[in-house]
Amino acid sequence: MRLAKYLAHAGVASRRAAETVIADGRVGIDGEIVLDPARDVGDDSRVTVDGRVLDGPEASAVYIVHKPLGVVSTARDSHGRRTVVELVSAEGLRLYPVGRLDADSSGLILLTNDGELANRLTHPSFEVEKTYRATLGSGPVGDGALRALRRGVQLDDGPTAPARVRRIGPNLIELTIHEGRNRQVRRMCEAAGRPVLALERVAFGPLRLDGLASGEHRRLDEQEIERLRAL
Q1: Could you confirm whether 102 is annotated as catalytic?
Q2: Are residues 142 and 36 in the same domain?
């Protein structure tokens, strides 16, 4: 197994983040600092990060979490805010979020120790769908705004792909996208002339909140994890 993948499966970081950890000279194999993320790790290799010996790849674990407002979707926060990782009692597993939800957004987010799976779920090439419910300002949502979102809108970092959108209330829409740009749904709605007042992610790939209350979580079973891998 290549070193970056080994670190990801050991719960150190996602595969891309693990490459940075390696480049910073923090990783050793059998007492030698290694800077090559493609270096092979043998079954009997002694791998360390910052001098700490790794136990080896952890069993893959994925949690679905209903993130409340005000909670940040990072493993740690330098400003002392509550993080989504703190919502889960994971029995010593090193978890990190899959993707992001802004502090002022709520809803479904995944936590995992499987860096390979996290990469597949967030990399743009895999086009994993995420569904949001957005409460919009400026009065009832008209057909023009819906058509604009369905066609795709122009943002400062380029045009978006077409979205699936349906109106489920006078100023409430459900919108599905497969991109993952920063604050994308909010920016799309603003570009269509409708500021977002509240935003909740209700689905990530085949997973939905399904009655999970704000702040609650559950661990996915093996069948659910395999459905995510199949994406």
Answers
A1: yes
A2: no
Which residues does 223 contact at the CB level (< 8 Å), separation at least 6?
none
Where is 219: in which H helix or E strand?
A: strand 217-219
**Prediction pTM value:** 0.78
pLDDT per residue as tens digits for the range 129-155: 999 999 999 899 999 999 999 999 999
Do 75 and 106 belong together in one domain?
yes
Tell me whether strands 47-49 and 164-169 are parallel, antiparallel or unpaired: unpaired
Helix segments in 135-221, DSSP class H: 143-151, 184-191
Determine which one of 50, 102, 210, 221 is catalytic: 102
Locate tokens 């122009």: which residue? 154
